Structure prediction request, 253 residues.
Amino acid sequence: MTKTKNGRLTGGTVTWLPVVPAVLGLSLVLTGCPTIAIDNGNNDGNGLGLLLLSGQVWTMEEGFNRDTETWESVTAKFTENREVFSDFGGTGWITGGLLDFRGGTPGDNDLADMEEALRAFSGWETGDIPNVTVSGSADARAVWLTTLETAAGTISRRAVTLSANGRTDEWVNYIFVDRNVTVTGELRTHTDRWEWDGDTFGVTTRHEAFTLPLRAGWNTVHFALSAQSAGNIAANTWGVSHGDPPHLKWVIF
Prediction:
């Protein structure tokens, strides 16, 4: 089984630094800024051994606004102090609502076969994963980091957009791979229909195509799931890409 955490990482600043003494000697203060990736000239936030995460932490609540008759997602600045940790070590704190976390390299016992890690790219489907493959090394191993933990709450990087007919959930996860690989997802659409009490219901799920080169080390992966409905028929769209959109937030639950 791939070791992973239940949740997602969300808003603020994400900084990647290579594990070399010259860089570790730098002092960086990055709070409330747009997302920043520093990656030895690759300029895509991938293949780095040290993970630095920082930025404002927020709370998030969803509710129905009776005045506008719409569902809303409301965020507010988190202002408490808490120690932050992960399954792979590292040190960090939330100080006055500002996250500052430095993660390291997972140990060999943390890594699992790449084949199991691929399930995240298809939405954690069970059984066969016909549309997602990996190339570059059949022996690659990987592990996902999806949340940071505190003694009273989980932090994930995410955003929610609500509309009259549905919602779009976005989140950023981090995958560590022990060698260079490329993950490819093919376009795939499938529809499920069923009858209940004389009515027909259905959901169509579209998995968008993607190609993600992953370099040895930590890599940023952005997921988006759009779920829209019209009457008894729902349409879901699943997307995967590199990057860390600036509208995502660090959210604590």
